[in-house]
Design a protein that fits this description.
Blueprint: H1 5-9, E1 22-35, E2 41-49, E3 53-67, E4 79-84, E5 101-105, E6 117-120, E7 128-132, E8 138-145, E9 154-168
Antiparallel strand pairs: 1-9, 2-8, 3-6, 3-7, 3-9, 4-5, 4-8
Length: about 170
């Protein structure tokens, strides 16, 4: 019989249930985000949901790219993107709009296609437990477009993926 750490790792503590890490990849292709004109322009779209229960997020990373063919958007548009449990309703990325991935600069687009942007969860957001016992928790991509780059409502297309490492700690 093996002794030591390997043996201890196989046993749950105090008769508890062993919980595994879940590494899930969420992919999106041509996911439409309607961006309202404003100072700045802003919009949100639901990206993914987690299983029911208390969800402990260990970290997230991914790559995204935005594009558009709308005439109300300049070819070199710029802005910011974040991921959080709240959708952007006021043109600012804060609070629940950034509680997975903080506001990240898109960089200037070329021919209405943004550079590929790397999104990584902020250290402050890792280790946070999200209450999904009602099974209604969603994560949203929140986008801001600089005011000088938008002159009316536009539709952006989001392509990319996010990998999230999490544990479901149980339900009520």
């Amino acid at each position: 019989m093996t002794k030591g750490v390997r043996r201890s790792e196989r046993r749950p503590l105090a008769g508890g249930k062993r919980q595994n890490f879940i590494r899930q990849k969420f992919e999106f292709k041509d996911l439409e985000i309607t961006v309202a004109d404003g100072a700045p322009g802003f919009g949100s779209v639901a990206l993914f949901k987690f299983p029911e229960g208390n969800v402990l997020i260990h970290g997230a990373a991914g790559y995204v790219q935005l594009s558009s063919s709308d005439a109300q958007l300049t070819a070199t548009f710029d802005g910011d993107i974040s991921i959080g449990t709240g959708s952007d309703a006021d043109g600012s990325l804060s609070g629940s709009e950034i509680n997975l991935v903080a506001s990240t600069s898109l960089g200037a687009a070329t021919s209405k296609v943004s550079p590929v942007v790397r999104l990584v969860s902020a250290t402050a957001n890792n280790g946070v437990i999200h209450d999904n016992t009602a099974n209604d928790l969603q994560f949203y991509a929140n986008v801001l477009i600089d005011d000088a780059a938008i002159s009316g409502e536009v539709d952006l297309l989001l392509d990319g993926h996010m990998e999230v490492l999490y544990t479901v700690l149980g339900d009520d």
